[in-house]
Amino acid sequence: MRLYGYFRSTSSYRVRIALALKGISCEQWPIHLVRGGGEQFSPAYLALNPTGRVPTLVLDDGTVLIQSPAILEYLDEAFPRPPLLPASLEGRAQVRAVAAIIGCDIHPLNNVSPLNVLRRELGHTEEDVSAWIARWIHAGFRAVEQWIGAEGYCFGPEPGLADIYLIPQVFSARRFNVPLDAYPRILRVDALAAEHPAFRTAHPAHQADAE
After folding, report:
1. pTM of the model as a whole
2. Domain annotation for the chain: domains and CATH numbers
3. Among candidate residues 17, 41, 28, 42, the one with its CA nearest the CA of residue 99
């Protein structure tokens, strides 16, 4: 398998965590999202992934998978141990809710594309952009803080899909200097993940393209 990603892309980070949790060996192919106007817009990469985004996972047989939610579902179905979702229908719905808050409500509004529109097309200052980022992280994290459990990872003693979404978003919050003191449950999960080998392996600082 080959994973095309960027070291601080939170969606790439999610997939790296899942691969590490499941012990799946995968080549890492960096795609720099800034250098040269963005390597994701090169003809070669667009031929692979027409959205011009990361991550892209290429399977051993050449099948191309795009979009982190779809890739994570594939990995959990193709490599079911350890599972990323709990056994019960209700439990799976609760976990997916956290993934959706982060993947649908926070991440798209803080992705590089809308931020560049704010900067380049609408003329907003970096202070404005930082306030925008913080607004949506806080809105999502307030909900996540109430939804996840009071001990362990988000939903129990072992990490799963909710944690795979949450930890990269915490990394992003810190990158943009968003204060997190109001979220003790989230910080508890982050502290646990910091000691877990799979999360350490997947951390942006430990990638070959880290800057």
Report:
1. 0.95
2. 2-82 (3.40.30.10), 89-199 (1.20.1050.10)
3. 17
